[in-house]
């Protein structure tokens, strides 16, 4: 039924999504401006830092009350004020297939990760992944691959992009920048300096933060080489019943948040739903996936959120 490790032309395989998650999430100038001002912004700023630093250790240094629920709109605003921006990270030109790309942020989409604001490269447009009214179709799907009418030569004419070869010249080369002394480190950060978490994942899975990943410290060079594993389904199976096939195509199971069905997208939606059910809110890294009427879980809800995320009873494929 399935043909594993099939030989495929490199042009048929999408280049992976690369997510860059900087450790720089708290701008010193903002922290110092509002520190100990007894303002609502200062109180919210402390909640924000406690949440974004919770990947290292639960930040117990809140001078005030640890909130149970937070407003999504102010969280987004503080993140915009405090986190390092795309233009600061990608200050240098980027090389793709021996072509230099300027103004690279036009090809980057903001996403939320375990540290806070991250930047996704070669991710399908969000409106194609989520149930969005602006959806107008895609030139690539999980089951059918690339459309015959899609451009094979230009990288970013379609997303996800694909490379045309496997040599030294068919690579993506990034130079990431940190802004030394402009950001505050989280408590108990094992790194003595700014760093980046680089995640390699499926271009159609918005929130897959647990796949292949690597930490890149300042003043270092790192090469990541990928060997794709191809698993194709016999075309005859597409017309068989679900009972016989025992798997879903990308458009056969309706999800409420995600337009594209994958095991990862389904599990992420289950995590969001069970977190709302158990805690009455969502984890902060789901702030881009829900409406502004949904509450974010504050630092006081951390234990509840952890229990919800670990509750495998509700994960269904």
Automatic annotation (TrEMBL):
Q: What is its main location?
A: membrane
InterPro entries named among the record's database cross-references: ENaC
Q: Which UniProt keywords apply?
A: Ion channel, Ion transport, Membrane, Sodium, Sodium channel, Sodium transport, Transmembrane, Transmembrane helix, Transport
Where is the protein found, in the record's own terms? Membrane
Q: Report the GO terms under cellular component.
A: plasma membrane
| Presence of keyword Ribosomal protein | no
The membrane topology term of the UniProt record is:
Multi-pass membrane protein
One GO MF term attached to the UniProt entry: ligand-gated sodium channel activity
Instruction: Family membership, please give it.
Output: Belongs to the amiloride-sensitive sodium channel (TC 1.A.6) family.
Protein's recorded name:
Uncharacterized protein
**Organism field:** Acyrthosiphon pisum (Pea aphid)
């Amino acid at each position: 039924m399935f043909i594993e490790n099939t030989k495929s032309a490199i042009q048929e395989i999408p280049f992976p999504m690369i997510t860059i998650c900087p450790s720089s999430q708290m701008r010193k100038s903002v922290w110092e401006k509002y520190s100990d001002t007894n303002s609502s912004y200062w109180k919210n700023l402390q909640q924000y830092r406690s949440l974004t630093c919770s990947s290292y250790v639960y930040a117990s240094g809140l001078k005030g009350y640890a909130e149970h629920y937070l407003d999504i709109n102010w969280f987004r605003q503080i993140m915009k004020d405090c986190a390092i921006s795309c233009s600061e990270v990608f200050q240098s030109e980027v090389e793709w297939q021996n072509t230099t790309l300027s103004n690279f942020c036009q090809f980057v989409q903001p996403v939320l990760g375990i540290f806070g604001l991250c930047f996704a490269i070669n991710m399908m447009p969000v409106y194609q992944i989520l149930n969005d009214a602006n959806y107008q179709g895609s030139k690539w799907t999980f089951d059918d691959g690339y459309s015959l009418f899609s451009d094979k030569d230009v990288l970013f004419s379609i997303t996800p992009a694909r490379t045309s070869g496997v040599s030294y010249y068919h690579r993506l080369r990034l130079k990431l920048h940190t802004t030394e002394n402009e950001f505050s480190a989280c408590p108990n950060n094992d790194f003595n300096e700014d760093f980046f978490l680089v995640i390699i994942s499926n271009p159609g899975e918005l929130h897959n933060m647990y796949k292949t990943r690597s930490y890149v410290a300042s003043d270092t060079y790192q090469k990541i080489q990928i060997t794709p594993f191809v698993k194709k389904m016999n075309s005859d199976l597409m017309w068989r019943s679900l009972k016989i096939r025992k798997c879903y195509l990308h458009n056969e199971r309706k999800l409420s948040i995600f337009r594209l069905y994958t095991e990862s997208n389904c599990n992420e939606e289950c995590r969001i739903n069970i977190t709302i059910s158990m805690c009455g809110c969502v984890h902060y890294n789901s702030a881009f996936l829900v409406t502004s009427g949904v509450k974010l879980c504050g630092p006081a809800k951390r234990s509840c959120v952890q229990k919800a995320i670990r509750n495998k009873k509700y994960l269904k494929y």
